[in-house]
């Protein structure tokens, strides 16, 4: 899962992370995010391990650390693409969950709603892929 942003951004993704934890019980859930958020990420009970990743400001990281392995599933909780989609696609995951972006026509996904609250946006993403989440 990619959410390489700040504390507030991580917290808005918690309902979606909880849904992923329920749906993927028994799988290791790895969050690519800022290393200083490792304790908070693990305290959510949704993340098994943090993969250090951050870009300048709110930018998508240029790359993921060398220890990133090919995931079965990559989930883009960072943004609407295309840079964040391409970053995760570079890992060659078996499946990639992300919002649809016109620059990547082969990637299915729900439409990006620029007006949605972040909690609702990430829950809508996981729900579109059959993993319902409660934004509240």
Please describe what this structure looks like:
This protein is of the alpha/beta class and 136 residues long. It has one domain. Helices cover 29% and strands 10% of the residues. It has 5 helices and 4 strands, in the order H-H-E-H-E-E-H-E-H. Strands 1-2 form a two-stranded parallel sheet. Strands 3-4 form a two-stranded parallel sheet. Helix 2 packs parallel to helix 5. The longest helix is centred in the last third of the chain and has 11 residues. The radius of gyration is 13 Å and the shape is globular. The mean pLDDT is 92.
Using the alpha-carbon principal axes, give the shape.
globular
The helical percent reads 25-40%
What is the straight-line distance between the termini?
A: 21 Å
Q: How are helices and strands ordered from N to C?
A: HHEHEEHEH
The gyration radius over C-alpha positions equals: 13 Å
Structurally, how many domains make up the residues? Answer: 1
For the biggest β-sheet, the strand order reads 1-2
Tally the helices: what do you get?
5
pLDDT < 50 stretches: none
* Sheet with most strands: 2 strands, parallel
| Number of extended strands | 4
Mean pLDDT: 92
Strand content: 5-15%
Structural class: alpha/beta
């Amino acid at each position: 899962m990619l959410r390489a942003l700040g504390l507030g951004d991580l917290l808005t993704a918690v309902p979606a992370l909880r849904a992923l934890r329920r749906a993927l019980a028994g799988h290791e859930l790895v969050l690519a995010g800022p290393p200083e958020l490792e304790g908070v990420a693990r305290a959510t009970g949704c993340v098994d391990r943090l993969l250090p990743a951050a870009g300048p400001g709110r930018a998508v990281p240029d790359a993921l650390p060398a220890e990133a392995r090919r995931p079965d599933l990559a989930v883009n909780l960072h943004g609407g693409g295309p840079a964040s989609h391409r970053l995760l696609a570079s890992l060659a995951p078996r499946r990639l969950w992300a919002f649809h972006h016109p620059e990547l026509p082969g990637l299915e996904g729900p439409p990006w709603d620029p007006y949605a609250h972040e909690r609702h946006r990430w829950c809508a993403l996981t729900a579109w892929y059959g993993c319902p989440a409660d934004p509240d």
